[in-house]
Amino acid sequence: MSFVEYSDFIQDGDVAIVYLSHDNMMPVKVQQGAQTQTRYGVIRHSTDLIGKRYGSKVTCSKGGWVHVLHPTPELWTVTLPHRTQILYTTDIATITMMLDLKPGSVVCESGTGSGSLSHAILRTIAPTGHLHTVEFHQKRAEAVAEEFKEHRVDHLVTVRNQDVCKDGFGVAGVADAVFLDIPSPWEAVRHAKTAMKKHGGRVCSFSPCIEQVQKTCEALADHGFEEINTLEILLRVHDVRTVSLPLPDFGSDAPSEKQPDPSEKAPAPKHTAATIKTTTPPREIPGHTGYLTFATKPRT
Predict the structure, then answer these.
(1) Partners of 58 in beta bridges
(2) pTM for this one?
(3) Which H or E run contains 130?
């Protein structure tokens, strides 16, 4: 099992995603002889998981069942252990596109946090790219490095425990893109420029407050970055439902030569309503998460 390569069968040592419902999933480290408790009963790793295909329907001890899924960055984002606030798929997708990430890209990131974005970046830049990620907090850096090893992507990433605002990314002239998710990204702009390749590249900064965005934009402009712009991604999920709409009565299609007999009852209308599918916007939408500021380093 690897987060960047698909495997057909569950093996001892894999990290699998146990799917109970669309809003209830959990990661499980598969180990010979181990058990996992769910609300549907016990899952025995040796007999219920190891050797089974990913996507299999597994019956628990109480008679209920779950599906066991291959891990992906998207599933990891909604099941990972939170050590910090994380980025979710809506923002991650935009970051991946706007930074023009692709297989073979070299990316610098700070801070690593819980590794939500890191896993998405690694899946995108594999098999020949590399991620240089910097985390200020020592225990978080150690925890995420262990996760990368467990998920078998450690050959694609270098984790450094240092202050990016003072010490930079530890590399120079190698990055195609840089991502900043730190309290004062404007202090790291010069290090981002140093880390990027001479032919240029893209930089992104995630900040929850507009004052952070203002300072970061000023620093980007002072260091010669171009095409500076800021986005805010708000997701609106429309509700699909069935509605019945009355049909207007336009009379008969052709004029009738015969005068209607007042004593006769008028025929009942054949179709008085139409049933259709429609969508309605939500009354409330999730609020602000953060601003994404993008810029381009020109060729030097």
Answers:
(1) 66
(2) 0.86
(3) strand 130-135
